[in-house]
Design goal:
It is built from 5 helices and no strands. It has 171 residues and is an all-alpha fold. The chain starts with a helix and ends in a 23-residue tail after the last helix.
Length: 171
């Protein structure tokens, strides 16, 4: 399971990186055209906003999860005993999985609605494919959360990983 999730994550991260690269190139070309030639690219903003930015964020969610981009407020949990902390950690992990599943279903239904209604933006770009990016990225993140559920007991879940102290010198 881990190998499959990792392979899918690598593909999505590759798309995310290329989307950022395309966004930079397109925005630079649009700005250069707008200010140097007085000829902006008419659809640059729409493509950047509705496609490239969405891909760059949602396809990189699981990558961010693995490298500690999740926000944790731990000032209360630090004062708990080990057993209480473990129970709270399980509750947090299960709630994150439930919320992830809820988000996957909601975004998938929105994508299906936009496809069936043939929603388009100003320049007649279909919005359905952009809406499908959201459940794809969220699903992979939710699958990683589910995969990490048994690791909560050992404190190895990426969701609950403690932030490393940057003031401590590395030996």
């Amino acid at each position: 399971m881990k190998r499959v999730l990792t392979a899918i994550e690598k593909v999505l991260v590759w798309f995310s990186v290329w989307s950022v690269f395309c966004m930079v190139c397109l925005t630079t070309a649009d700005a250069a055209g707008r200010y140097l030639l007085n000829m902006p690219i008419p659809w640059a903003y729409e493509v950047t906003e509705k496609y490239l930015m969405v891909v760059s964020v949602f396809f990189a969610l699981s990558y961010g999860y693995h490298y500690g981009s999740n926000i944790r407020v731990t000032f209360v949990v630090r004062h708990f005993g080990p057993r209480t902390k473990l129970i709270v950690d399980y509750i947090v992990q299960v709630l994150a999985i439930a919320y992830g599943l809820l988000m996957v279903v909601g975004t998938f239904l929105k994508a299906m609605k936009s496809i069936s209604e043939r929603m388009q933006d100003t320049f007649n770009f279909p919005l359905g494919p952009a809406y499908l990016v959201l459940p794809a990225g969220l699903l992979l993140l939710t699958l990683w959360l589910l995969y990490d559920l048994p690791k909560v007991r050992k404190g190895q879940s990426h969701l609950l990983k403690e932030e490393e102290d940057s003031t401590t010198p590395v030996a």
